[in-house]
Design goal:
275 residues; alpha/beta; Zincin-like; 10 helices; 15% strand; binds zinc ion
Length: 275
């Protein structure tokens, strides 16, 4: 879902089992919790790191320590990967918050989420809510949601962007899930069964998508832009978005494509040449 009400963006993550991709991360945008306090639970312990504050209740020290260390490592790798390293855009006082619930039931009760949800992020509030005990947490959920926050911190939370761009950037920083997504996107490209860019680029509503194809292809396009071209290009593109240039113009001009058909051909060639 997308709520366009005030430009705030929330994403909700859940897993679906699928025949071609073991776990599909599916994210939707919605806006149910802005008017409420960040959390309702009364007692939280905290662990601070340079860019994060982890709020937890009864989690073992090991898990919280591992979470804080992983978040810092991912922060560094994500800003490097996206070319944002030289941009000092996240100050000490603006640490992101990770609320770690003890279990799925407490998390669902707090977020009023859906039974399949595994994490929820508000890019505007720099807040992630999640819970202990999810196998893909460190490998996929954490980098995905952190990337949403970092990317939107840079380009602005109110900048209107199509779904493939937000989700593609977030998926591009996952680990094992990204391998599955790239395999899936490559198979679609080989059969010419992928979503054509002129259709993909008009999707702003997550209720309209088939998750497997959509997330795999979106991730593969960002990987194509990051791997095929100089890293500076993505920084330039992001700067243009931050400065209010319409995303299609920004994308074409930065990467020197005459049109999106040309971009689609270049993406397809890149995908078919991948091992
Ligand atoms: Zn997402």
């Amino acid at each position: 879902m997308i709520n366009k009400g005030d430009g705030s963006i929330f994403s909700l993550l859940f897993f679906l089992k699928n025949r071609t991709v073991p776990f599909i991360l599916f994210f939707s945008f919605f806006l149910p919790v802005l008017a409420r306090a960040e959390v309702n639970a009364s007692f939280w312990q905290t662990k601070k790191s340079p860019h994060f504050i982890v709020y937890y209740q009864e989690a073992s020290g090991d898990f919280v320590g591992q979470l804080a260390a992983s978040a810092e490592n991912y922060y560094n790798s994500i800003v490097d990967e996206l070319g944002f390293r030289r941009m000092d855009f996240w100050s000490w006082d603006d640490r992101a918050k990770v609320y770690l619930f003890n279990n799925g039931a407490d998390y669902l009760n707090e977020t009023r989420g859906l039974a399949w949800s595994g994490a929820q992020v508000s890019v505007k509030l720099r807040t992630i809510k999640t819970f202990i005990g999810q196998p893909s947490f460190f490998d996929s959920i954490l980098p995905h949601e952190l990337t949403h926050i970092i990317f939107r911190e840079f380009v602005g939370s109110r900048t209107k962007l199509p779904l493939w761009l937000d989700e593609g950037v977030a998926c591009s920083q996952e680990k094992s899930s990204l391998v599955s997504r790239m395999d899936s996107a490559r198979a679609q490209a080989k059969q010419d069964a992928h979503l054509k860019f002129d259709k993909l680029f008009e999707i702003y509503d997550s209720t309209l998508i088939a998750p497997n194809v959509f997330y795999s292809e979106s991730a593969s396009i960002i990987v194509f832009l990051l791997k095929k071209y100089d890293r500076e290009f993505f920084l330039d593109f992001s700067r243009k978005l931050r400065d209010g240039i319409q995303w299609k113009s920004a994308l074409l001009s930065t990467y020197h494509f005459s049109n999106f058909e040309e971009m689609e051909s270049a993406w397809k060639a890149f995908m078919l040449n991948q091992p």
